[in-house]
Amino acid sequence: MRTMVAAGALAAAFIVCVAPQAQAASELTDPYEILREHYEAVGGLDALKAQESLHFVADFSLSGLSGTMEHWEVRPDRKRTELDLQVISVTMGDNGTTAWELDSNGKLRTEQEPNVLARRAVAKKVALFEHLDPASTVFEVKLLSIREIEGRDCYVIRITSAEDNAERVWFIGTDDFLMWRAEENLPDEQHQTNFSDFREVNGVLHAFRQDVEILPLGQKQTITATMLETNLEVDPALFDPPAEEADDYTFTQGGDSAEVTFEYISNHIFVRVALDGVDGL
Q1: Model confidence pLDDT, tens digit, residues 35-70
Q2: Which of 89, 102, 112, 232 is most buried, judging by how many CB atoms fall within 10 Å of its CB?
Q3: Secondary structure class of 250 (helix, strand, coil)
Q4: Who's near 185: CB < 8 A, 6+ residues apart?
């Protein structure tokens, strides 16, 4: 079983925000100026670039299941996430070279899907703040409108990249320049993440709660951090894929392959199975 976790939750871990330093005197019209004000409000680019590592533990819920999440990352592209939902557990990682996932059965999968690999490469460029460069050949940034989100007026900034065929939409407060919502629009689905419960860690506020919805599935996730720390020493080996175990299955008709009919819906594979003599499960 492959457990989906929204890109907004893990690609950037916990969005950092600090208390507003100044009120917006008037509405801005330059999207790059709004982005610069946002990063200045969260502590400045120098401070953000100096935050080289992050680790948090969180309560995690997914479509009626509940458990825990633990996440480590080292900028700009190394990360590891462990999910324990009691009935299933999944570990995902990326050592900067290989993205991988270890499922509840101990099976290792390395990411090969071209669109996912492209989004991974673009996410690294976002982590390196390349989207702040108006001359970037990767990103196109546009101010779409001002929209109310949870009672707050927000600038709606769209960041597109032809490299991964994705659209990122950030909702940044007009008065405090904090990011209150992020959307990632992909060809076959959309991730919406609302940020709240901002708390200070080492002089920077982090959103200790993220509420995520994946459309059109309607899958909902809630991540509530119970501990968060930054700039800790992390063993690089933590991000490497584990050794793959021996096969724990056989083909009932012999041989080394079988034809299986399945449905593929929003990155989920649905297969009819027989269990204890009952077909069609």
Answers
A1: 999 999 888 888 888 899 999 999 999 988 999 999
A2: 102
A3: coil
A4: 166, 167, 168, 169
CA 166 from chain centre, in angstroms, equals 14
Residues 243, 12, 40, CA angle at the centre, nearest 5°?
150
Give the model's pLDDT for residue 14: 55
Q: What is the pLDDT of residue 270?
A: 82
Instruction: Report yes or no: 154 and 147 within 8 Å, Cβ to Cβ.
Output: yes
C-alpha span between 245 and 159 (Å, rounded):
41
Longest Cα–Cα distance of the chain, Å, equals 73
Q: Report the alpha-carbon distance of residue 186 to residue 183 in Å, rounded.
A: 10
- Taking the C-alpha atoms of residue 18 and residue 11, their distance in angstroms, rounded to an integer, is 20
Q: What are the tens digits of pLDDT across the range 6-42?
A: 434 444 445 454 434 444 447 899 999 999 999 998 8
For 161-184, give the DSSP string: ETTTTEEEEEEEETTT--EEEEEE
Task: Write down the H helix ranges in the chain.
Answer: 7-10, 31-41, 45-50, 114-127
